[in-house]
Amino acid sequence: MLKEESRKLVEIIVAALDEKKAEHIEVIEIDKISSLADYFVIANGTNASQTEAMVDAVEESAAKNGFTPDHTEGRRNANWTLIDFKGVVVHIFDEEARQFYDLARIWQDGNHLDPHTLKETEA
């Protein structure tokens, strides 16, 4: 996936997560420090129903715009679902799992972006 496509997909994902009232949406640009993807999008919900709705919204919004995930895992347990679009990897957590895994800390060397403007912010 081209970087411009990844950035467009991030915007679509953030809008879908906002629509489902996701908490603490984070966008981390990781392409300069990892070959895994261009961006990570991290968010959490407050309960299993909300996190499942968030996953559905991301997949549906992406599909409407021509993006199909390469892989989705963790959907059944609802505490951490990973949606891999190749250039963008989405992590949707419940509150407890998000605190436990603390991906933002692990990827602190990435470029943290404001999810609503996608401008650079201090990490």
Query: What is the CATH topology descriptor?
Result: Beta Polymerase, domain 2
Global shape? globular
CATH-assigned homologous superfamily: Beta Polymerase, domain 2
Q: Unreliable runs, pLDDT <50, ≥5 residues?
A: none
Question: What does this 3D model show about the protein?
Answer:
The protein has 123 residues and is an alpha+beta fold. It has one domain: Beta Polymerase, domain 2, CATH 3.30.460. It contains 4 helices and 6 strands. It has helices at residues 3-19, 48-64, 95-101, 103-106; strands spanning 23-29, 39-45, 71-73, 80-84, 88-94, 111-113. It has a 6-stranded mixed sheet. The longest helix has 17 residues, at 3-19. The relative contact order is 0.23.
Task: Give the helix/strand layout.
Elements lengths: L2 H17 L3 E7 L9 E7 L2 H17 L6 E3 L6 E5 L3 E7 H7 L1 H4 L4 E3 L10
Parallel strand pairs: 2-5
Antiparallel strand pairs: 1-2, 1-6, 3-4, 4-5
Helix pairs in contact: 1-2
Question: How do you describe this structure in short?
Answer:
The protein has four helices and six strands, in the order αββαβββααβ.
Labels describing this entry:
123 residues, globular, single chain, alpha+beta, Beta Polymerase, domain 2
